[in-house]
Amino acid sequence: MKKTIAYCGIICSECPAFLATQKNDDNERKKVAEMWSKQFNAEFKPEDINCDGCLSESERLFNYCRVCEIRKCGQEKGVKNCAYCDDYACETLNKFIDNVPEAKTTLEEIRKSL
Questions:
Q1: Tens digits of per-residue pLDDT, 56-82?
Q2: Beta partners for 5?
Q3: Cβ atoms within 10 A of the Cβ of 12, count?
Q4: What's the DSSP call for residue 45?
Q5: Residue 64 pLDDT
Q6: What is the pTM of this model?
Q7: How far apart, in whole angstroms, are the C-alpha atoms of residue 56 and residue 2?
Q8: How many CB atoms lie within 10 A of CB 56?
């Protein structure tokens, strides 16, 4: 599978919600919902676990992706992801990647190749 990198640097193609959606696997959706409910101390239902990735124009997006300021900004600027942005790394992105260091690593690797 081709590597799909979200605007923020998360690798969508490795995300459990993305994988469950692409396999159309309801058992996998249930497992992800249970795992994320515990991990994020929030209630997720299997039907919440539908996502074709942040870069997709599909209606199937994880709830957070629908309201993500980083995604909205990337779409408005027309960049592949934040690594390609002239304002890298802005305050909004920095707040996010403080909690997701692997996303920063991904974006930094891309920037090295630009």
A1: 888 899 888 889 999 999 999 999 999
A2: 11
A3: 23
A4: -
A5: 85
A6: 0.86
A7: 14
A8: 14
pLDDT band at 102 (very low <50, low <70, confident <90, very high): very high
Instruction: Say which residues have a Cβ less than 8 Å from residue 55's Cβ, sequence separation at least 6.
Output: 4, 6, 7, 12, 80
What is the pLDDT averaged over residues 94-114? 92
Cross-strand pairs, 62: none
Greatest extent of the chain over all pairs of C-alpha atoms, in Å = 42
Can you spell out the DSSP letters for 52-112?
A: --TT--SS---HHHHH-HHHHHHHHHT-SSGGG-TTPSPHHHHHHHTT-HHHHHHHHHHHH
The residues, any chain, with a CB within 8 Å of residue 113's CB and separated by 6 or more, are none
Q: Are 16 and 101 in contact (CB under 8 A)?
A: no
Q: Is the pLDDT of residue 16 over 90?
A: yes
The candidate with the shortest Cα–Cα distance to 26, out of 1, 60, 62, 50, is 50
Phi-psi region of 22 (alpha: psi -120 to 50; beta: other; left: phi over 0): alpha
